[in-house]
Amino acid sequence: MKRVLVRSVYDAFDYVMDHYYPAGLEEFAERKDTYAVISIQDTHTEGFGFRFTESTSCKGVLTLYFDDIDRPVEGAALFSEEQAGQILSFVREHSGAETLLIHCYGGESRSRAVGAFITRYLGGDESRYFEEGRPNMHVYETLEKVSDLSERD
Known about the structure:
Blueprint: E1 3-8, H1 9-17, E2 35-41, E3 58-65, H2 81-93, E4 99-104, H3 110-121, H4 127-131, H5 137-152
Helix pairs in contact: 2-5, 3-5
């Protein structure tokens, strides 16, 4: 992957639609990169009402349901080690995509944590994610823990 993008659900939708073109008019697509999507959706609404799917440009989609919390809260779903493992596997399996698009509702906490960790995991500098916002540290630290465990196996 050449780049990691963190977006709100609205901006992620716009990014995906920038790849669309009418039949036979491929040159009209604003974007021509390939991408994979990590879609983080809320549990209390059972998602955002739509799902991303694979296409000519989209090489894979991982949809996860967990809420923007950092400790157990009744009625909400906390990010799990199993979900962290799914993210790490997805990133490895889709390394050929040019872009990794990560979104949650606002693009500020959950997706920022995943983006920061994956940027570091891929050998990049994650500092901008911490300078420009507040990643969900439970998500970040769970990814870090699962990554350390999987590298020992």
